[in-house]
Amino acid sequence: MKFKFVIPALLVLGICFSFVYKLADDPFSDLIKRLQEYNKKYAQEKVHLHLDKPYYAIGDDIWLKAYVVNTLTSEPSNISKALFVELIDEKDKVKTQLKLPMNGGITWGDFKLPDTLSEGNYRIRAYTQWMRNAGPEYYFDKTIKIGNSWANKVFTNTNYSFTKENTTEKVNAKIRFTDKNGQPYINNEVAYEIQLNARNITKGKATTNNDGEISINFANTQPALYKSGKIVATINLPNNQKIVKNIPITATSNNIDVQFFPEGGNLVQSLPNKVAIKAVNAAGKGEDVTGVIVDSEGTEVNRFETQHLGMGCFVINPQPGKTYIAKVKYKDGSEQSLALPKVQTSGYVLSLNNSTPDKIIVKIMMSEDLIGTNELKIVAQNSGNVYFVTRAPSQKQIITATIPKKELPSGIVQFTLFNGANTPVGERLAFVNNTEDRINTTIENLKPSYTKREKVDLNLLTSFNGKPVRGSFSVAVTNTAAVKPDPENETNIFTTMLLTSDLSGYVEDPNYYFLNQDNKTLLDLDNLMLTQGWRRILWKNIISNIPPPDTFKPEKSIGISGTITSYGGKPLPNSKVSLFSSSGGFFAIDTLTDAQGRFNFDNLIFTDSTKFIVQGRTAKNKKSVDIKLDVVPGQIVTKNKSTGDLEVNVNEALSGYLKRSNNYFDELTKRGLLERTIVLSEVNIVEKKNPAQNSSNLNGGGRADYVVTADMLQNCVTLVQCLQGRVAGLIFEGSVPYLMRNMSSGKRPMQIVLDGMNVDSEFLDNIQPSDVETVEVLKSIGNTAIYGSQGGGGVLIITTKRGGGSTGSIFAPGIITYSPKGYHIAREFYSPKYDPATPDNRLDLRSTVYWHPHIVTDTAGKGPFNFFNTDEAGTYRVVVEGIDMMGHLARAVYTYEVK
C-alpha cells in the first residue's frame, strides 16, 4: 500500500503515441503542482475497524481494533490522536459513543450490548474530527445484525408482497408472532403504524390468527419519495404487557432500477464505446437482467447480460442520426425499454484494458473533428498522489499506451483525460491488486486439530519482501459452528482501505473481489469500477483553487478552551481562569487569558463522564464575567447507505447463533457473571411529585432527610443565609456547613456535591440562591452510607436549575459546569486458563474464543499469543489483520479443528 510519489517517464510506446512530460511552468504543470500541494495540505484519513464477529446478540461484547491511515503517505496516521466510534440503531440514533485515544494510527475498544436494546440492523460508525470536513461518505460505516433471544419474549417473521396500480405501490405484510420456543401468539391484539421515510402513512389494529399471523395492507402513493421505512407493531400479551417490535420495510415494490454508464463518461458518435450496466432492486441489491440494444430503426445491434450482482457491459458503435434503446428483460419475464445516454457528435472516449495481471492498456479515441486540434494529457492518481502524467499530440484518432502495474499502488487508480484547455473530458477507474505490497503472515505451531479446552500456543510470523517486519496486529478466533462466516460479504482491512473508502455508495459483497484472481472476478471488479461513482478527488476544486472545508481541526489532545468576556461581550485579557474537577480525585489548574480573552487548558487526559467546573475572574478579581466555551457540535447521523445489508427478520437470520448464545448467557447468569434487567409486572401507582428530579443524589432524587426547594430560597442574599436555621442540626461556621452532632467529635464538615461534583465549601458563597433548584440535606446513616467515608460528616446535594449540561451550564457569576467527552477505557478480553490439576466443570460456551487487539511483532517479525479452546467442537477460524509503520497491510485467515 505504501508507494512514493512518482511521475514516470514514457513506459511503452503505443500507436504513434508520443509521451513527453515537460516540467516547464505551463498551465498544466501548474495544475499538477496544485494537486500535489492540495493533497499535502489537506491530507485525508481512512479508518478501518476489525471486529471480532460479523454479527452479535444482545448481551454480547463487541470487540474492535481501529486502523487509521494518512492518504498522503498511506502510513498510520499521526494527523489525529482521537477516534470516535458509535453504535447507531435503526432509528439513526446514536446508542453509544466511544472516544478512543489513538497513537500511531491505531486504537481499540469495546461495546457492551445491554438487554435494554432490541434486535435490529445496527451500524458501527467511526471517524476522526478531521474526517468530518470531508463528510460522512468517508467514514467507516458498517451495518451489523444484532439479534435478541436472551432478553426477548416476542419473535417476528415478516414477508412482503408487492403489487402496483397505476403509480401507486401496494404492499402486503404478513407478520407472524411467536414466543422463544416458536409457539404462536393466538388471538392477541396488535396495534400497528406504518412509517415510510419517518412519515406516518397509516395505522390500525389487527388480531393474530391461529398461526400467530396478522396481515397488513398499505399503499405508497409517492414511490419516488418514500422507498423504505418500518412497521411499528405493538402486541398485547397477558398481564397487560405490551411489546413493541420495529420491523424494517426495505422496499415498497419489486421495481428494478437500471442504469447505463459509458466508459470514460461519454457516448461518442462513430466510435466503439463500452457501456456498463447496473441493475439494482428496490432494496438496494443487484439483480441480474438480460436484454438487447435496438437502434431508432428497430435494428438489433447487440445483446447484453449482467454477470454479477446486476453488473455487466456491452459495446456499441453509435451511428450518425440514430438513437438507441435497451430492451431490458427481468427474471419474472417482464420487459422495459430504456433510452441509452445521449450520443455526442464530438468528443473523446477513454478506455482501459485491465484484464492482464501485469499491465494496464490505455486507449484514447476521438472524433474526427478533434484530430490535431490540441495536446491531450493523462493523469493517473490515487488519493491525490500522482503516479503517472503524460502528454500526447492529437495527430491520430486512436492513441494507446501500456502502463506496468508494478508502477501503481494497490487500490483504485483514477485516470483522467484533459484536453488542450486543461479541462477534464474523460475519467476511468481501475483497480490494481499488487499482492506483493502486502505483509505476509504465517502462524507457527498451529496444529490441524486440537481437543476441547486444549491450550493453543502460537507465534505470529510477519514479513515483507522476505524480511521480518514490525507491526501491530489484531487476532480474532471464533468457532464457525456458532459464528458462520460469510466470506464474500466480509468487511476487512483490504476491502475498506483499498476499495470502499474510495467509492461512493453501497458496495455489495466487497470481499468477493479479493477471494479469487480469476478472469471472471477481474471482469466483475472492472464492471464495479465502471458503475460506481468516484468521490475522493474533485478536479473542479483543484482547477478553481477551491479548498476543502476545514471547520474541524485535527484533534491532537483533549482540551478545554474558550473566551472570557464582559457581560457586554468585550474580551477580558489577563483574566484568571481556574479549572476544577473532583472525578477520580481533586484536580485544579489555573491560567490567564491572552489579549483576546482566550484561554486554553490543553493536553488533558480524563475518562468519559468526568465533570469540570470552570471559574473566571477579571484581572481585578471580579466575578462579573461571561465564560464562553469552545464546544464542537456533535456529528449528525445520516441515513444508512448500505440498504442491501439490511435484514428484515434479524432473529430468524441469526437463529442458530442466538440459540447458542442464549445457552452461554444462561450459564453466565447462573454464575452471577451477567447482569440482567428484571421487568416487573405493571402496577398502577399514584404519582408523588419528586421535588428533586434532576438531582445527582446517589440514593435517588428526593431521598434525603430534608429537601430545600427553589421557592424557599427567594428572600435571601446568599445560600448560607437561606439554609441557616432552616434545617434542624445544620449549622455554619463562616460558610462551612457542619452537622451539630459532629461538632464535638472531630468537627468534620459536610461534603458538598454541586451538580454531581464534589466541591469545596467556599463555593457556597459563589452560588446565587436564584440559580438553585434544590438542596438535599443528608444527615442519617441510611442516606449518607452510600457516600462512604466522604459522607461521614453529612452531605449537601445542590442541584442548579441549569447544571450538568455537556455544553456548559452557568449556575453562578463567573462559574460554569462542563462535561466534555472523555476517553473510553478499553476492557481486557477475558480468556480463561485451564489447569488439569484443578478441574473446572463449568461449561465454556464462548462464541468469541479469543480476541487480542494489539499483538506487536518484534524485530524478528514474531508475536506470540495463546488461548484455550472452549467446550464446543467445530472448525475454529483465526482472522489476523494488521499494519506496519510503512502502511503495508496484512490479512489472513487460518482454521483448525477441535474434536
UniProtKB/TrEMBL annotation:
TonB-dependent receptor plug domain residues: 708-795
Keywords: Cell outer membrane, Membrane, Receptor, Transmembrane, Transmembrane beta strand, Transport
InterPro entries named in the record: CarboxyPept-like_regulatory (IPR008969), Plug_dom (IPR012910), Plug_dom_sf (IPR037066), TonB-dep_rcpt-like (IPR039426)
Topological relation to the membrane, as annotated: Multi-pass membrane protein
A single cellular component GO annotation: cell outer membrane
Location of the protein in the cell: Cell outer membrane
Main subcellular location of this protein, as a coarse class: membrane
Entry keyword annotation includes Zinc: no
Entries under Gene3D superfamilies matching the protein: 2.60.40.1930, TonB-dependent receptor, plug domain (2.170.130.10)
Family classification: Belongs to the TonB-dependent receptor family.
Protein name: TonB-dependent receptor
Origin species: Pedobacter hiemivivus
Upper classification of the organism: Bacteria, Pseudomonadati, Bacteroidota, Sphingobacteriia, Sphingobacteriales
